Amino acid sequence: MSESPLKLFVAALLIAVGLSFGGYFIGQGFIEGRLNDRFVTVRGLAETEVQANLAIWPMRFVATGNNLAEVHAQLTADANKIVQFFVRHGLPENSIELQSLEVTDLLAQAYRSGPLDSRFILTQILVARTENVDLIAAASQKVSELVDVGVVLSAEYGSSGPVYLFTGLNDVKPEMIAEATVNARLAAEQFAADAGSRLGGIRRATQGLFQILPRDNAPDTMEHKQINKTLRVVTTVEYYLTE
């Protein structure tokens, strides 16, 4: 038995009304969700100047000749001269370490060509390590003393001078992160004021990488060659905005 026209009309009307209310609530939920997602992204910078607390000076020195025993004796004598150089400038012997010895026999090289002035090349690395960075810095100004006594420093490694490191990053991290976060909030508050809004809570926050930079950022300046350095961190914070 078919439905009467009146019943069909009422049913269609109820469905239409239901769809209208459903669409209204869905639309309101979307609008409210968008309002709750109003936020600003800001970055906060913190910088501080620090001094290196560790100096490492690797020296690579060379001796050459045609008699292996004589070349080795020369290398040993040069090592003693370098040790005495450091001791003379205030570094204790227990902070000086001899490392890898390399022996090259040019006659044993398969692709050698031409005459040889010296058959054997012996190289060794001596490393001085100390927390007294000023002592190493002062000694580096006197390295010509080694040249004067016949020590041949290799240009391939170590003769360019000491390396200065800062190892106290964990000690300054909390304070720098706090400062960067404060600076980020100040920027967000200014943005909110300019936009006629109020600053809400934090939506998301990320800490950037800590950078150790040369204090004097001149061209071709390397951070590890400077005693004085600049630490930098940038935090990124998202704040909600409210009316």
TrEMBL record:
Coiled coil: none annotated. This is SIMPL domain-containing protein. One of its GO terms (biological process) is DNA damage response. InterPro entries: 26kDa_periplasmic_antigen, SIMPL/DUF541, UCP029033. It comes from Desulfonatronum thiosulfatophilum. It comes from the Bacteria. It holds the Pfam family SIMPL.
